Amino acid sequence: MKDVIRGLAYVVGDAIDTDQIIPAAHLVYSLTVPEERRMYGRYALSGVPADQQGLPQGGVPFTPEDAFESEYKVIISGSNFGCGSSREHAPFALAEAGCEAVVAESYARIFYRNSVDGGFVVPFETRVRLIDRIETGHEVEIDTARSTLHNHTTGEDFLLNPLGDVADILKAGNVFEYARQQGLIIT
Amino acid sequence: MAPQTITEKILAAHAGRERVTPGDNIWVNVDILMTHDVCGPPPIDIFKREFGDKAKVWDSDKLVILPDHYIFTEDPHARRNIELLRAFAHEHDLPHYYDVGTSRYKGVCHVALAEEGFNRPGNVLFGTDSHTCTSGAFGLFSTGVGNTDAALIMGTGKIWVKVPETMRFVFEGDLPPYLMAKDLILAVIGEIGTDGGTYRTLEFDGGAVYDLSMQERMTLTNMAIEAGGKNGIIAPDQVTFDFVRARTDAPFQAVYRDADAKFHSEYVFDVTEMVPVVAKPHSPDNKAPVTEVVGTRLDKCYIGSCTGGKLEDFEAAARVIKGQEVKVATYVVPASTEVERRMKEVTIDGQTIWDIFVSAGCMMGHASCGACLGGPIDTFGRAVGTEVVISTTNRNFPGRMGSKMSAVYLASPLTVAASALNGVITDPREVLV
Fold first, then answer.
1. Are B13 and B121 in contact (CB under 8 A)?
2. pLDDT at A186 over 80
3. What percent of chain B is predicted at pLDDT more than 70?
4. Above 90 in pLDDT, residue A187?
């Protein structure tokens, strides 16, 4: 986990489920073969209905057509981000597109766990409804140790919830590194 | 010693502790790990990356692989996933691999886990599928995990868990004939919302629950995840033991809560006052009484999946449909090969369930997840364009059944069958005699 995550924000609404994050038809691609795994970056967030893509204006795809990477590094969402299926392909797809952090009011627990244990994106929670305060394309900066978000476009600062127990896993890189540090895997 | 819930007791026993408290992070020993074709190959890759090419799974008798998602498709990548599972099962000499295209093939993992005797009271079961919570109907702790967690279990037999608080849902009274377990769980999700149970256990209790068969109980626990729940659970009783003992000789230890166990919250429903409900597009918590949407024009009806494709789901639908013809494209997809076989054996007034659907003009599929989650473009029954669909499946987020312009209503098999006869959403009370 980086100390500072800085980049453009991409804003979506509430209850962005895993089919919106990566539609099930694309789950056939390998997560390891390079020419296939980049398809997850291409189709990340492609299941979000067009008028809800990139709020407040909408109609802004996360990854441009025919591209494999997104210009947005931080996703801002409302409540229950990542609800639905257990597919780890969801946080994987966001990471593959170049996303480094999600800031949401709340998460579905399997998505949250997958993000942390696989070390894909840092899932911050916040009590502030940031989707009303940040717009797609704003430049934001997260201080991961202090759990703060600064909006460079508007000059506003926001408090994020501390990462708590999962910070150790994120710092280790993923759950395997964490388990080795704890002596739970000896390899 | 402070009293504990069933979930707390099971987790404590599997962590080698006397007791646990909600919020504790513990490492538990896993009794069964289940995986399938979509979320099986990625953990295998991670397992090899982390433990080495020559590594052995922690216990080959505890790993169950049930391909079920993308089975009847020409998609080359989907077919490759089956080959990867087959190779892994061969390499590790896995006794519980149920290969596609053989007599061992089962179909939807959650239903097959029950049929094959892998759901045993008091156990801890993880699966690479969010609906793994279905198994909790048998009084065990079960939940869905991702690729990384599954790979960790494959290598070590252990995983960390945060002990959840328990929400208790009590159903009292005699279930009226026009209601099914699907109406009860849609009512719960409508009341607490798709995140109302996040991080928590949903425990189902009360006389109306214990009157249900195992198949109907599985419909309740299946959809705990639609409220965000970590697991769904029902204390085992004689119905549970009879079902399990008919399928396995494996030992198990039934676990019950302490009398004064603490719950996060309790909800009590009188089922005699409940009505048939739907979840309107585009969320499982968008509940409405069927009466509110009666007459909604339909393009497609779908009866299938882990939650709505069990034998009793088809029996209920067949009783409504028998002797009549459907007025709208209706897709029937058995959850498992056992369900399909039984549909061709069990009769209603001299006609098999299978024949009742065929005679009514339904399109018959074969055991798999089918169009519940959309899937490859050639998936049987997949939603296309702006179709309006009513389905016995468990999820109706945008695009779930294959088209993000389509509108999906979730309902009980009775309500879907009644709607199929009229081509519009129909209250099952209108057609049940």
1. no
2. no
3. 100
4. no
Exposed e or buried b for every residue in B354-376, given b needs 16+ CB within 10 A? bbbbeebebbebebbbbbbbbbb
| A187 lies within 8 A of chain B by CB | yes
Q: Which of residues 101-160 of B touch A (CB under 8 A)?
A: 127-130, 132, 144-149, 152, 155-156, 158, 160
Question: How far does the CA of residue B148 sit from the closest CA of chain A (Å)?
Answer: 6
pLDDT computed for residue B1 by the predictor: 75
Helix (H) / strand (E) element for B216: namely helix B214-222
Can you tell me whether residue B96 is helix, strand or coil?
coil
Q: Do B374 and A19 touch (CB under 8 A)?
A: yes
pLDDT tens-digit readout, B63-111: 999 999 999 999 999 999 999 999 999 999 999 999 999 999 999 999 9
| Closest Cα in chain B, distance from residue A79 (Å) | 8
Closest to B224 in 3D by CA, of B252, B254, B258, B199: B199
What is the per-residue pLDDT across B340-366, written as a single tens digit (0 to 9) for each? 999 999 999 999 999 999 999 999 999
Candidates 3.40.50.300, 3.20.19.10, 3.40.50.1000, 3.90.1150.10; CATH matching A4-162: 3.20.19.10
> Which residue in the block uniquely carries the two structure tokens 């309500």?
B415
Q: Where in chain B is the domain with CATH 3.30.499.10?
A: 6-248+263-268, 278-431
**Mean pLDDT of the region A127-151:** 98
Tell me: the pLDDT tens digits for B124-178? Answer: 999 999 999 999 999 999 999 999 999 999 999 999 999 999 999 999 999 999 9
DSSP B294: T
Provide, rounded to the nearest whole percent, the portion of chain A with pLDDT above 70. Answer: 99
H or E element, residue B29: strand B25-29
Given the DSSP bridges, would you call strands B329-333 and B347-348 parallel, antiparallel or unpaired?
unpaired
Pairing of strands A139-143, A148-151: antiparallel
Domain B6-248+263-268 CATH (choose: 3.30.499.10, 1.20.1250.20, 3.10.50.40, 3.20.20.70) = 3.30.499.10
Question: What pTM was computed for the model?
Answer: 0.97
